[in-house]
Amino acid sequence: MATMSENQRLSELSRKIYKQRQERDLALGKRGETDCLPLFREKFDKYLAKTDEYNTMDFISPKTYIELKTRNYRFTQLSDIMIGKNKVEFCMKSNRRCILAWKFIDGVYYYEFNKNDVENGDVYFAMGGRMDRGVDERREVAYIKKHLLLNI
């Protein structure tokens, strides 16, 4: 049986590993944002600007919002595409064009939000998330049917 100090050391190690993985994932996301901004300006809106890190969406212009998720796996590995429920709820309330985008190893894909897709079930809410950083990060998320995404 582990002693209290052994349990504390294990807990500290778990927190350290979680923090390292979280920082690695944040760095991946920031690189993706830097890489994709010129592409998004060309494809969607030349007036896009990066928002601060506490904003719900990553890019903004007077007419458009874009959220980008950078992933270190292939688009072809997925069925439906997961994103935070708060992102879809934000899009549902917005009067601007909302683009949800993903930078995968094998390409950049996007979905232009449409409220009808929520109503017809092509965008739906269910439990999801991750547990690979040593912490249970599952919660209710939004899923977008893969056939709705377009490759840039």
Structural overview:
The chain has 152 residues and is an alpha+beta fold. The chain is 36% helix and 28% strand. The chain has helices spanning 4-43, 85-93, 115-119, and strands spanning 49-50, 59-60, 64-70, 81-84, 97-104, 107-112, 123-128, 139-144, 150-151. The protein has a 6-stranded mixed sheet with strand order 1-2-3-5-6-9. Strands 4-8-7 form a 3-stranded antiparallel sheet. A hairpin with an 8-residue loop joins strand 1 (49-50) and strand 2. The longest helix is centred in the first third of the chain and has 40 residues, at 4-43. The model has no long low-confidence stretch (mean pLDDT 88).
The SSE string, one letter per element, is: HEEEEHEEHEEE
Our measurement of the CA-to-CA distance between the termini, rounded to an integer number of angstroms, reads 55 Å
Helical element count? 3
Global shape: globular
CATH architecture classification name: 3-Layer(aba) Sandwich
**Beta-strand residue percentage:** 25-35%
Tally of separate domains: 1
Low-confidence stretches: none
Indicate the CATH topology. Answer: Trna Endonuclease, Chain: A, domain 1
Number of strands: 9
Q: Describe the main β-sheet briefly.
A: 6 strands, mixed
Mean pLDDT: 88
Rg over CA atoms, rounded to whole Å, is: 18 Å
Strand order of the largest sheet: 1-2-3-5-6-9
CATH class: Alpha Beta
Tell me the structural class.
Answer: alpha+beta
State the helical fraction: 25-40%
